[in-house]
Every structure is written in C-alpha cells, then in structure tokens.
Design a protein that fits this description.
mainly alpha, 12 helices, elongated, disordered N terminus
Length: 263
C-alpha cells in the first residue's frame, strides 16, 4: 500500500551528474548519486563564475559517451539512424554503463529503451513490403484478409486466422499488436516450402521470401527468447554483466537489420 503521495509541498531540485561520477557510484539510490554529485556542482558553479576559466569537461564527457557507444554500434551507422532510434541506443548504452560496475542489480531496465524502436522497425518492414498488395475496396479487402485456410493443418487454422486479423489491424487500421512477433511469424511462414495459402498469405510468401532467407529470422528468434526470459515476462533475473553485454549487442544488431529491411 502506498503510504503517501506527492503534493504541491514536495520539493524538487536539479542535480548535475558528470559522466565519471555517474559511472563510479556503486549504490542504487538517487540519494547516494546526488551526494556524490554535490562537489561537481560546486566546482561547476565556481568555474562558471570565473571568466578566466574554460569549461573543458563537457567535450571529455561527450567523447567518453561516444567511446562507449562504439562498443555496440559503428558511429556512422548510429548517425544514419532516425533520431528516435539514436536516442534509444544512447539511453540503453548509458544504462548499461551505469549498472555494469554495481553489484546485485538487475540489468533488465537496460533493454527497455529499445523495446519500442524494435517494434516500430518491425512494423515498418511489414507495412513497406505488404501494403502494396492490400486492395483499397472493402469487398476484395475482406477476401484478402479472410482467405480460405481449410487446406492448412487443422492445428494451424485458428493461428493462421488470428495472424491474418493481426495483419489487417496493422496494414489497414495501423493498430498493430506485437508487430515484432507478427513479423517473425510471417518470416517463418514465408520460408516454408509448402503450398501457399491465398489472400494475404500469398502476399507474405512472395514479399518476404527473400528476407526470410537472411539471418533476420534467427536474430528475431534470439531477441524474443532473451526478451521473454529476462525483460518482458522476466522468467529469470538478469544479473550477469556478460550476458547483458551480449544481449545488448544482439538487440542493437536486430534494430539495425530491421531498419535496413524496411528500406
């Protein structure tokens, strides 16, 4: 039960957090971080009040942050990404750097900034590749998204119908449900050699067959296993630094691959 709540009497203050202090703090509380940053704020005020002095720490911190990012992504690739993706990557790497020197912490929050961008990029792949085949008129559109799937295995019929409905939500109404999982299922379907089903499934097979032959399916499988184990459903606690480092690299590569596939 919550014992209290914030009100108009709550006092807030800004804290100046230099990168080197941020990395050296071992505790997990905001209070400890604020205490560690107090000397740096005093020095900042002193230097700002002295016209003879030049603030040289900002470029140093920027370079340090850039060096940290290089471990996970080439700077040229980072610069070419949309601003939302760049910010998410910078945030995720900063969280990792903050947590990696601490003990008994969960690394799951490191991946939160990338969940939205990865879903967004997966959605863009499906829209870019499948939208040209969607009929504009209501009647043929209904046939397109409700094809006869009776020739499929009985155990797969309900699943296929649900996937077709999800594709309609995305391609027609732009209201996706779990677009990364939807793309993964579409890639797996497109890679099969069985006789294709009609309607939207024919489109999935023809438009995604080439992409299904790349390593994107494996990347998404790895992403989903990690996500469901440590981040979304949190079946296990993520406390190992190296597991987190490898996972973060995989998530970055997955985001880049999806962005490239969306064209």
């Amino acid at each position: 039960m919550v014992q209290g709540r914030l009100n108009e009497k709550t006092k807030w203050r800004y804290v100046y957090v230099p990168q080197e202090v941020f990395e050296q703090v071992r505790g997990n509380s905001v209070e400890e971080l604020a205490r560690a940053c107090t000397p740096a704020l005093a020095q900042l005020i002193k230097e700002a009040a002295s016209p003879q002095l030049t603030l040289t720490f900002a470029p140093v911190e920027e370079q340090r942050a850039a060096d940290q990012l290089k471990v996970f992504i080439d700077p040229r690739r980072l610069e070419a990404l949309p601003s939302r993706y760049r910010r998410a990557l910078e945030h995720a790497v900063a969280l990792f750097q903050f947590h990696e020197k601490k003990s008994a912490v969960s690394f799951a929050p490191v991946f939160q900034p990338l969940l939205g961008p990865i879903d967004d990029a997966a959605q863009a792949v499906l829209i870019t590749r499948l939208s040209p085949d969607v009929p504009p008129e209501a009647t043929p559109q209904k046939d397109f998204f409700e094809p006869d799937v009776s020739t499929a295995k009985k155990s797969s019929v309900d699943f296929l119908k649900e996937r077709a409905r999800s594709l309609k939500r995305l391609l027609v109404h732009r209201s996706p449900l779990m677009p990364t999982g939807l793309l993964l299922d579409c890639l797996k379907y497109a890679s099969k050699d069985t006789e294709p089903l009609p309607g939207v499934f024919t489109s999935v097979r023809s438009r995604l067959a080439g992409l299904a032959k790349t390593d994107l399916t494996e990347l998404l499988d790895t992403f989903y296993l990690f996500r469901n184990t440590y981040v979304a459903r949190a079946k296990e606690e993520l406390t190992d630094v190296e597991t987190t480092r490898r996972g973060l690299k995989t998530w970055v590569v997955t985001l880049l691959a999806l962005h490239d596939a969306a064209g």
